[in-house]
Amino acid sequence: MKKTITSIPNLLLAVILCFVLSSCSSTGLKVNDSSPWKTIQFEDQANALDVDFIDNNNGFLVGSNRLIMESNDGGETWEKRNLDLPSDDNFRLLDIDFKGEEGWLIGQPSLVMHTLDSGKNWTSLSLGNKLPGQPFLVTTVDNGVAELATTAGALYQTLDGGESWNAKVVDASGSGGVRDLRRTNNGDYVSVSSLGNFFSTLKSNSDTWVAHQRASSKRVQSIGFNPSGNLWMLSRGAEIRFSADSEDLESWTKPIIPILNGYNYLDLGWDPNGDIWAGGGNGTLIVSKDKGETWNSDPVASSLPTNYIKIIFLDKEQINTQKGFVLGERGYILKWKG
Fold first, then answer.
1. For the chain, what is the domain count?
2. What is the pLDDT of residue 261?
3. CA distance 191 to 169
4. Is the alpha carbon torsion for 226, 228, 229, 230 positive or negative?
5. Mind spelling out the 3-state secondary structure of the chain?
6. Is 310 within a domain?
7. Predicted pLDDT at 22
8. Is the bond preceding 272 in cis, omega lying within 30 degrees of 0?
9. Stretches in the chain below the pLDDT threshold 50
10. Least CB-packed of 82, 93, 222, 322 within 10 Å?
11. What does the alpha-carbon distance between residue 88 and residue 223 come to, in Å, rounded to a whole number?
């Protein structure tokens, strides 16, 4: 009898613990009544990795397994395209960027392609065999001018449409190799080291990466710029942090942990209304309408069997209204309805 009586407090403690833990899970987060997202599912199960538009109607989406798709109706429908690539390499098309009819596309292993006619024809460019790292990010700066960043943190620029490339960053060791890399419109960069143990910044007028300590002991998952130019940081343990001062990169807010469901956040994005979206594993897509104070779950996104790896809101001169996409795995993407 004594053994049974003493087990009651333990049982009560277990019930309370389960209740507390459940309140921190995804089921404890309020689900919005409606969603601004439309689901698009491709027959191809490759992972979408980037998307960009030339104008209001015409755009391209790229991804793993040589995936390249084109839309001529603003992203409502997509058709698969083919690139003239060597048949023995399974290319991951990582990044695509247009300015007017000129565009650049990069992939791994060591792929750089250039178009002057809105993607109707693409030309492969040789980077030689001494490029440190693999292509990771490309930006169309102006007519014939582009910047290319690599997984080693090296930065190159072409002024002649890719005929020649000049190194802008001589010593890329400060980046620590990269797992994430972002660029502002004015040419500033931020990167996360390959191990996630620190992050680095590079000013547009500098040729040297500056390393910074991470905000906590948790490894950094990704990092980027908000619309005002300040930084945000996603860390392991589903932590979200913001930097309020672009000049003080050692000062961060306390960690925001909207939900604990065992999945990390992979990307963050600001929609045209100023709302903050965070995406991650197992259908996790949450939104904050009060600068990160409170968060709700999106009903459309949470019903899909995918991981959300990239959030993109396009704001370009050639596009009259902002376009938004959440890129998922296994052939799923979400399109912003507004």
1. 1
2. 73
3. 14
4. negative
5. CHHHHHHHHHHHHHHHHHHHHHHCCHHHCCECCCCCEEEEECCCCCCEEEEEECCCCCEEEEECCCCEEEECCCCCCCEECCCCCCCCCCCEEEEEEEECCEEEEEEECCEEEEECCCCCCCEECCCCCCCCCCEEEEEEEECCEEEEEECCCCEEEECCCCCCCEECCCECHHHCCEEEEEECCCCCEEEEECCCCEEEEECCCCCECEEEECCCCCCEEEEEECCCCCEEEEECCCEEEECCCCCCCCCCCCCECCCCCCCCEEEEEECCCCCEEEEECCCCEEEECCCCCCCEECCCHHHCCCCEEEEEEECCCCCCCCEEEEEECCCEEEEECC
6. yes
7. 36
8. no
9. 1-27
10. 82
11. 34
CATH code of the domain in which 194 resides? 2.130.10.10
Q: From CA 217, how far away is CA 79, in angstroms rounded?
A: 44
pLDDT at 247: 79
- Is residue 282 in some structural domain? yes
CB burial of 248-283 (b: ≥16 within 10 Å; e: otherwise) equals ebeebeeebebbebebbbbbbbbbeeeebbbbbbeb
In a domain, 257, yes or no: yes
How many other C-beta atoms lie within 10 A of the C-beta of residue 65? Answer: 12
Asked if residue 10 belongs to a domain, the reply is no
For 88-135, write each residue's pLDDT tens digit. 788 999 999 999 999 999 999 999 999 999 999 999 997 766 678 999
| pLDDT value for 189 | 96
Using alpha carbons, select from 334, 283, 290, 285 the residue that is nearest to residue 312: 334
For 307, the domain range is 31-336
Question: What local confidence, expressed as pLDDT, does residue 64 receive?
Answer: 96
How confident is the model at residue 242, as a pLDDT?
A: 96
- Which residue pairs, CB below 8 angstroms and at least 24 apart, start in 39-45? 39/300, 39/304, 39/332, 39/334, 40/78, 40/332, 40/333, 40/334, 40/335, 41/331, 41/332, 42/69, 42/78, 42/331, 42/332, 42/333, 43/331, 44/69, 44/80, 44/331, 45/330, 45/331
